[in-house]
Amino acid sequence: MTTPVESLDEITLRLPGEWVLLESCRFAENGVITHGCVVFSSADREAAYRELHHRPNSVVIFTGSLSPDEDRPFLDPVVGCTT
Fold it and tell me: 65-80 pLDDT, tens per residue?
């Protein structure tokens, strides 16, 4: 069974405040991810990055908001996602 491609808005609504690994991403002309297949999600950032080591073709996004004083991941939250 293949994982469905979802828009980032759908993913954000379904998995609020989660660290999400996406594969088969689609991009807008400006390079922003617009769609992807969720292959892993967790509220635990470290768990997501551990899983990333096993899925080198994945991208990590965060579907919540980070406070200004919180450690920044190497990838910023997805621009344009509604939270």
Answer: 877 766 555 554 444 4
Q: Is 11 helix (H, G, I), strand (E, B) or coil?
A: helix
> Which residue is associated with the tokens 């759908």?
10
Structural domain count of the chain: 1
Are the beta carbons of 77 and 64 closer than 8 angstroms? yes
Q: pTM of this prediction?
A: 0.78
Q: Is residue 68 part of a domain?
A: no
Classify residue 55: in a domain, yes or no.
Answer: yes
CB 63 within 8 A of CB 20: yes
Closest residue by Cα to residue 42 from 74, 18, 76: 18
